[in-house]
Amino acid sequence: MTLRVAVPLLAALLLSACGGVDPNSPLGKRKALFKDMLHTSEDLGGMLRGRVTFDPKRFAANALKLDQLSAQPWQYFPDAKEDKSSARDDVWQRQARFKALADDLQQKTHALVAASAVQPLQPQVVEPAVKAVEDSCEACHKEFRAY
User: Which residues are involved in binding heme c (predicted)?
Assistant: First the structure.
């Protein structure tokens, strides 16, 4: 009886694992970076919107982390689209525009780091820089991400 239950259960588990993304693949690496960017930017936005207590040290550290992350995922976009990518084909067909938007994000995160260096760090000082980063992310998603 136990064997009748265990074998189908094991088969189902093995088959469900086949649909995942290899974390060492370019797709897996950039998804992990984008997820880290999202969590970091959500923390920054949460501090400005009152969902999280504003902590100037943590804010500045997260601004720096986001700036460092913003330069990384682009290297993991291969020359041809992968099967499981949620990016539109335009990423590969309009690479100059995609690169321009990636560069814009990096400029916006650099500006956020600079704004975060102003002491004492005040939410109203960094709020426009966070908004600019969020707008940059949204612009790229509208053009290149398939939802």
Answer: 137, 140-141
